Amino acid sequence: MLNKETAYSILDLAIISNGKTLIETFDDSLALAQLADTEGYARYWLAEHHNSDAIGSSATSILIGKIAEGTERIRVGSGGIMLPNHSPLIIAEQFGTLGTLYPKRIDLGLGRAPGTDQATAKAIRSDFYQAAMSFPDEVQKIQNYFSTENASEKVRANVAEGVSVPIYILGSSQDSAHLAAKKGLPYAFASHFATAHLIKAFEIYHREFQPSKVLDKPYTLAGVNIIVADTDEDAERISTSLYTMIINLLTGKRDRMQPPVEMNAQLRGIIQQSAVQQMLKYTFIGSKETVKVGIKSFMETTQVDELIAVTNIYAAEDRMKSYKLFAEIMKELNAEVA
C-alpha cells in the first residue's frame, strides 16, 4: 500500500514531430512546462541527446533557460547533462549562471552515457571513454566548483560558487547507485527505457546511502512512460507513435516522430518482441482509470519518492492532455495517502 505522497515531474526530449519546425517544437515544450507549472509538477527536466532526427534537446542548458524564463514556480533542469561530453568547469559555469538568473529553481542531473551513438560520441569528445571512466571524479569537480571553498583555488567557476543548484546522479545500471549512495545525492533511474536493473539499483542505493550536507536520507526518482487519454482505445492509438519510434531506434532507422496509426496485427506482433517489451516494461497506457491502477502498483513496488513522466507522442495537444490527466491521477493517489 502507499504510505507517503509521491512527487511527480516531467522529462522532455523536445520531440520533433514530422511536419513541425524546430521553433514550433521548442514553443510546444514551453507551453507544456507552463501547464506543468500550474498542475503541481515538481520539476521539468530536459535530456541531452545528439544526432537524432526526433530529439531537439541537444543544447540542453540553453533550453533550460528558455523554460525557466517562461515559467514561475516549477524547478527546471537536466535529466541529464551527459557529463563525459563536457568540461566540468563549463557545466559549472553554465548552471551557476542559470542558478543565479532563476534562484532555487535549477537542477543539475548528471549522467555518464554519451546520449548518442559511438561515432557521434567520438565527434563530441575524442577521449569520451576515458572521461566516462572518470565520471565520479568529474562529478566531484563540479561539486568543488559550486562550493564557496573553491574561491581560494587557482581554477574557479566564480559564477557558480555558493549558488544553490542541487546535483542529481542519473543512471541506467547498478554502477550509478553506488556512486549516488556514496556521495549522499538524490538518485534518478532511467526506468522509462532501461528497466532491467531498477529494483536492484534502488536496493543498493538505499543500503549504501551515506548522509551528506545536501541530503540526510535517500531520495529516489524513476522514469515511467505515460500516455493517458479519454479511453483505452484512444490511448492505444496515439501510443503507436511511441512504438514506431522505439522500433526505429532498435533497427537503426532515423526519422522524426510519426503520426499515430491504427493498431494492427503486424505492429502488435512487433511490440510483443522481447527487446521492445523489456524496454517498455514500465509503460502505462490507457484511460485515467487504467493508468491509475498501473501507476499505483509501480509506486507500491518501488516505494519511489518521485515519478518522472515521459510522454513521447506525436501531437502537442495529445501530450498536453496526457500530462494534465496524469497530474489528476497523482493528485488522487496522493489524496488517498493524506
Automatic annotation (TrEMBL):
Coiled coil: none annotated. It comes from the Bacteria. Pfam families: Bac_luciferase. GO terms for molecular function: oxidoreductase activity, acting on paired donors, with incorporation or reduction of molecular oxygen. Residues 24-295 form the Luciferase-like domain. GO terms for cellular component: cytosol. PANTHER family: LUCIFERASE-LIKE MONOOXYGENASE. NCBIfam families: oxido_grp_1. To bacterial alkanal monooxygenase alpha and beta chains. This is Luciferase-like monooxygenase. It comes from Portibacter lacus.
